[in-house]
Design brief:
homotrimer, 274 residues, alpha/beta, UDP-N-acetylmuramoyl-L-alanine:D-glutamate ligase, nine-stranded mixed β-sheet, 51% helix, 15% strand
Amino acid sequence: MNNLINACTDLLCEVREKSPLIHNITNYVTVNDCANAILAIGASPIMADDAKEVEEIVSISSALVINIGTLNQRTITSMIMAGKRANELNIPVILDPVGAGASILRNKTIQEILSQVKINVICGNLSEVSFLAGLKVSTKGVDTAKVDEKNDAVVIAKLVANKYSCVVGITGKVDIISDGIRVAKIANGHKLLSRVTGTGCMTSALIGSFCSVTNDYYMATVIGIATMGISGEIAFEKTGIIGTGSFHISIIDALSNMNSTCFLERAKIDETKN
Amino acid sequence: MNNLINACTDLLCEVREKSPLIHNITNYVTVNDCANAILAIGASPIMADDAKEVEEIVSISSALVINIGTLNQRTITSMIMAGKRANELNIPVILDPVGAGASILRNKTIQEILSQVKINVICGNLSEVSFLAGLKVSTKGVDTAKVDEKNDAVVIAKLVANKYSCVVGITGKVDIISDGIRVAKIANGHKLLSRVTGTGCMTSALIGSFCSVTNDYYMATVIGIATMGISGEIAFEKTGIIGTGSFHISIIDALSNMNSTCFLERAKIDETKN
Amino acid sequence: MNNLINACTDLLCEVREKSPLIHNITNYVTVNDCANAILAIGASPIMADDAKEVEEIVSISSALVINIGTLNQRTITSMIMAGKRANELNIPVILDPVGAGASILRNKTIQEILSQVKINVICGNLSEVSFLAGLKVSTKGVDTAKVDEKNDAVVIAKLVANKYSCVVGITGKVDIISDGIRVAKIANGHKLLSRVTGTGCMTSALIGSFCSVTNDYYMATVIGIATMGISGEIAFEKTGIIGTGSFHISIIDALSNMNSTCFLERAKIDETKN
């Protein structure tokens, strides 16, 4: 296990050293937080969503993060164009299926993206990823819905990972990451993270940042999710009692101060091959 | 009067308990603040504005907040579609007529919404609501314009409430709320609230949150506006001297800590039936 | 030199006194920060980008700031319509050429704006302005690229200022402002400003605020850039060690507290006519 955590800290150093450009086609609710989270972890964000420029922009970038939080006809086209170009150039593509299951438009868009673009990492909450697994989900907006208790997040993560040949991250009280074979569980995080909008979106942006400096997208997903969880814990310790506004800002503070020492001390990552 | 304030605190508890989903079709300037204000008060935000999904999204929501701050052709259609569907399902619709009177597009859009959608609450500043009353207004952008001194906010609120059979909230130094018969005046708030963008938009988002748990939209409007006013006072006490950036964050902090005790201690609500 | 700095403080007082309306057609990443920066310095922001209203909105405004950060087909039309109307009414137009050189769409849009609209101030980083000078630039997204070392920022600023008969501001470690004849260098600022998204966008919004109260756009650009630099220094002193989230908020705090005394004490402006 120490090997995985140590490897994670190497990725952290590499992002800070290389400052890779991360192209985001994302929603207008949390876009500012995503840009600042990417900067805080040491990478460089670019947000561009017009069909006339996304292929060029992605081609100068080191990762593409597609987030369907406030999708519309105009940007769906851009997501697919950028994704295809990223595939041609072997640039990793991360998909955050915000609100999967909540509307036919979201469901069809996700299917369209998955059928036309090779996605390297899918990261969402349990109800979103359960929808991708083909399970019946009673979605309540963009937050986690109750999934049939009999289903297990590990089973769902592996199922979706194998279905789409990608890495899957499921955020929750315990985060699950799987590439279809390996499974990591992360026990970091704080429940207050769900009281601030954009913590899921920022997590996907962080995963994109780490994917840009390695071919091991499983590890990049582990560190991306762990980094947000640890930042949530630190933010809660520093400002949780003050309120969710200060907690929100403190998450970015913690990300900007994240280093190997902090990560090694705090990371609660458990890996099983089963 | 104690009855009204006590009833308000019941709504506060109910929002925190039920965490209702609030659908917002809003502007991209203050959307993040609106989402975080809704979360801070205990509800759950969803922002969706594509015509292909708004009817579905509103149908799983408990209130719809329409804010025309950065309206455009694409979202106007969505606003009306979502509003009509909300009407069919008896889901309350709140309209924030940002910048009413500032352009023909805004004026026509407001009239179009009001003619096609049954609005339950209109909340704006004096110049915006005066425009809806048919008064001549010299609007200066999206902020309050000087309205003819002879007009009285109470008269205007009642006039518009009766004209559109809805509850009207007029925010200002003293906030006025009327359902056409009852009139409440709120003396909470702080002038620094006008130095941060989005405090009006957040107020409408809060009203939507409270409307989702009651049929008494008058009371929901009273508590929505009072909650923002009280949060502004607390934020000023804690961070006013530091600057408007910290004050902005502190408003969300205060909303997230708002409870019955705080509300009962601070609320300055005066009701008259006249 | 004291004359220039003293004149700057007069502009600061005038903005706070008159609270001019500043029309922004900008990107959705940093729009909230731009609005709050404009409010913090004492002016009043309006964000409107639909082609059907931008001519009306700009006609009630005192300056127009065009920022191409997340440009798209819909807003490009609006930028040009608003710009032309501003020209007719002698309202100053500020252009922030975000990411110039990064895509054909951005490059063509900038050329189209510059050919159809008389721009009064262009403000960007060295790679963006170098692109406008016709120099070969290896752009890396929206951040500063390495420009051929032989080129000098002063030469480039003057070249672009003369080419487009406007004032040019180049932000960097030392900021350069030129109207083609006069050249000012500002040594304020802090490197942490590049770790928060939107500090460039906010700078352009501040320049717009100052241009709205004077015909001397050179001086307005000097004070706009200097104000952001000084605010960055103050923010670093107060919160730099805490993290980039707090630093971000502290920039707005510093802008909201900016006054003549602070400006006179801190401004490091050097002017040469060469």
